Please model this.
Amino acid sequence: MGGIGTPRLEVKYQRPTRGACAQSEFLSGTVEVDKQMISFLKRCGRFVSEFKGFGICHSCGRRSCFRFRKNMEKWLTDLSFLWDCSERLKNDLRLRENYFCVRCNSSVRVRMHAKAVLDYLHLASDHELLAKFKNEANFKIYEAAKHQLFKSPTFKHISSYVTSEYYDQASPGDYVDGVRHEDLERLTFPNDSFDVVITSDVLEHVADLKKVVAETLRVLKPSGVHIFTIPVDKDLPHSRERAIRLENGEIQNLREEIIHGDPNRSRGALAFRDFGMDVAEYFQKLGVHLKTISLPNIHGDSHSNVDVYLYQKTC
Model:
């Protein structure tokens, strides 16, 4: 298990400067790390200026350093250039989808999402989550992604940690290259199956969000929770629909088409809606009480937060 048996990391971080002395300044006495991490940084050469901090990665459970990848910043800038949303949202996306763990490549959004799940379960680490699976036979989690939040390979062997992806041409419950396919609008799981359901920047891409909320509530056990992230435009007063699915299955765009990156689709994933500052009221109309967990971007821009949301099955 990552991080087990290693000494506590003491951080006294100072940002590196550009130039030949940056690497030595970055390593000399400002952060106490093991020899392996120092060796890694020495191999980074010209990329050393992209490293922004050290700490514990909540996704892989290991001590790590975090890299603000300038190529990702450029890719997100180019992708969102023509989007009809606020510059604030575009900037938020450039921050939350960056600061990657050099060990498991999780972004700060993914790490803070993992932390929110652990915090809700009153657990300190992924190691404690694995122990919970071992000690509580009936405890189950469903993540609508292929092990995006918790990166330890051990999770792949935990039958009570169920994962899936969405593939356009597959039927719900089928397997594609060993990965389960599920449609959030018509899940194949029995009622009251899971203690926690996890989705990560997915709900803006589903056509019928009301049906998705109903399905997550169906498969959750009583008092179970859906813990998720969504991009919220904090300069948008009211959430708005961008596209709808017609009765014949065709998609009708209500606004200029926005496509987000998707590893399973070369074209990307269509955004059906923009979430705004009324997101709590939006979900209230869907029949659930939304709670917001605002976590500081402790591994990057300290002035930005990562918001994680949850609602609970109350009956």
Confidence is low (pLDDT under 50) at residues 1-31. The helical segments are 22-27, 35-42, 70-80, 87-96, 108-120, 126-135, 209-219, 279-284. Residues 109-312 form a domain with the Rossmann fold fold (CATH 3.40.50). The CA atoms of residues 197 and 226 lie 5 Å apart.
